Amino acid sequence: MLRHGLRLAAVAAIVMASGGVAVAWACPFCSAVSQTFSEEINTMDVAVIAKLVKVPPASDKPGDEIAKATFEVAQVIKGEGLVKPGEKIETLYFGDGATGKSFLVMGIDPPKVMWSTPLPLTERAQSYLASILKLPKDGPERLVFFYKHLEDEDELLARDSYDEFARAPYSQVRDLKDKLNHEQVLAWIKNPEIPASRRRLYLVMLGICGDKEKDAPLLEEYMRSSDRKAKSGLDALIACYLTLRGEEGLPLVNELFLANPKADYADTYSAIMALRFHGTEGNVIDKKHLVASLHHMLERPELADLVIPDLARWEDWGATDKLMELYKSADEK
User: Fold this and answer.
1) Which residues contact 288 (CB under 8 A, 6 or more apart)?
2) Disulfide check for 296: which of 208, 259, 279, 301 has CB 3.0–4.6 Å away?
3) Beta-strand relationship, 88-91 and 114-115
4) Which residues of 66-86 are buried (b: 16+ CB within 10 A; e: fewer)?
5) 89, 148, 167, 153: which is closest to 125 by C-alpha?
6) DSSP labels, 301-320
7) Pairing mode, if any, of strands 88-91 and 102-108?
8) % pLDDT > 90, the chain
9) What does the DSSP assignment read for 119-154?
10) Which of 238, 214, 140 is nearest to 180 (CA)?
11) Region of residue 94 (left: phi > 0; alpha: psi -120 to 50; beta: else)
12) Topology, domain 16-26+128-329
């Protein structure tokens, strides 16, 4: 009776740990850096492209009110009727840009609009803004546009395009398969100067457009490397490898990260995240094989808690006895 009660308590604890939450993935390993242009404009009442016409003189006197710069509206992006081309607006500006330079300026609370700090725009950025306003709100067609700007020479556009992908559902990224340039994606992954966040996105893309025979050996080389740059974005790297190799790739992941007590915590956690992705979105490996790999973590008691929610979510109740054993034999740590 006591054993039965303990079993039920353990099951309840596992269910509580899982939270009963269904995971809804966007781009699975991407974290947006900031709001996208589209998101920012959608939250504003007015958005314009305006030219700087007057910079206030600097003042060193204590207590002086900060003077505002004057801008002339060149194009109304949002809020027609609230402001018009040629109209002068004033807002705080702390830059030293030359007059005539173009900026994105947004505002709220009309009719007396409170204007934001201006954002300088290149000609490319102005064209980019004009284009994104015509795009559908979601879907592959929208992502195709941002794909073309992922490594744009204008860093502002590259960052915004990445953030758009970071918010897109994985299913929509997967629908781009025929639009992805395999060689270009591979070149981005190989570039050591690419930030880890973007490399994760490109590894997700390689999993979609890659080739098992051609690409898996390179990914394995990265996984085995002691060079942290080569292993940059390891969670997405492992997930990409498993997407291409399927169940056949699990023994290497077990050997390097899950069954290896000498593996770094960060590397082990990355492997767990990769398996978690495949258990929710990957659809290339049967969950029973993923569960078998996660069982290796139960032999590493100090890290076993990392996988308990996954085992519960995937209803692996066969692990309950092992978890009870760990609970009863646990030390202070």
Assistant:
1) none
2) 259
3) unpaired
4) eeebbbbbeebbbbeeebeee
5) 153
6) GGGGGGTHHHHHHTT-GGGH
7) unpaired
8) 70
9) EE--HHHHHHHHHHTTS-SSSHHHHHHHHTTTT-SS
10) 140
11) alpha
12) Leucine-rich Repeat Variant (1.25.10)
Residues 219 and 211: beta-carbon distance below 8 Å:
no
The dihedral built from the CA positions of residue 89, 90, 95 and 96, taken in this order, carries a sign that is positive
Say how far residue 296 (Cα) sits from the centre of its chain.
Answer: 28
Tell me the two tokens of residue 269: 């956690």
pLDDT at 139: 84
Q: Which residue has the higher pLDDT, 30 or 275?
A: 275
Contact 294, 272 (CB under 8 A): yes
pLDDT at 320: 83
The confidence score (pLDDT) of residue 65 equals: 64
What mean pLDDT is predicted for residues 263-284?
Answer: 95
Identify the DSSP state of 257: I
Q: 45, 84, 48, 88: which is closest to 68 by C-alpha?
A: 88
Token readout for 311 is: 């085992």
Q: Which tokens in the block code for residue 318? A: 């066969």
Sketch the domain layout of the chain as residue ranges. Answer: 16-26+128-329, 45-115
